[in-house]
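re: ur question from yesterday

yeah so i grabbed the chain u mentioned. its 178 aa long if i counted rite. heres the sequnce exactly as i have it in my notes:
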Amino acid sequence: MQVHPWHDVSYGDKAPEIVNGIIEIPKNTRAKYELDKETGMLILDRVIYSSMYYPTNYGFIPQTYCDDQDPLDILVLSQIEIVPMCMVEAKVIGVMQMMDGGEMDDKIIAVAANDMSVAHFNDVSELPEYWKKEMRNFFEDYKKLENKTVDVEEFQGREKAMEIVQQAITDYKNKFNK
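ran it thru and got these structure tokens back, copy pasting raw so excuse formatting
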């Protein structure tokens, strides 16, 4: 029996404070991997046109659903590059809200709960300012050579992020009758 990472893996029993994140893209890569929603396999969507690298591990929270018809995105801060399709216990600390191609596209910001170099952060406001600037810069610029625009709004704290996670869980249950 094949397990589908979006539909068959739990978002975690401590959600919305701590969630399971499924990593699609390790930090420091130019490869844009994406979950194939039908098969549950990871596909190479594209190689980023710009000479930029993902500043954090990037993935999704299983059994969540958003307006873009995808699971909720999550950025997992860690000192290491986490391999694709690895499930990570992630402590939610904030959200980066952005408009991508005219659609809202929230990115939950979390820290790997089992990485002591980052696990002490409890809110995005505690992060070094440089980390936030690097995330903002990456997401505002990584699609420019594709002639696409991404507008990053302000970073919001842990409480707002947990509301978004909870709403995405509810929306998944409503969408898929679970």
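noticed a couple things. The chain has a mean pLDDT of 93. also The two ends are 20 Å apart (CA to CA).
anyway ttyl
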